[in-house]
Amino acid sequence: MRKIVFDIETSNLFSDVGKNDPSLLDISVVGIYDSETDSYTAFEQKDLGKLWPILEKADLLIGFNSEHFDLPLLNKYYQGDLGKIRHVDILKEIKNSFGRRMKLDQIAEGTLGVRKSGHGLEATMWWAKGEYEKVKKYCLDDVKITKDVYEYALKNNALKFKEGNAIIDIKLDTSNWEKKDSGDAMTFTLPF
Question: Which of 31, 112, 154, 167 has the greatest number of CB atoms lying within 10 Å of its CB?
Answer without folding.
Answer: 31
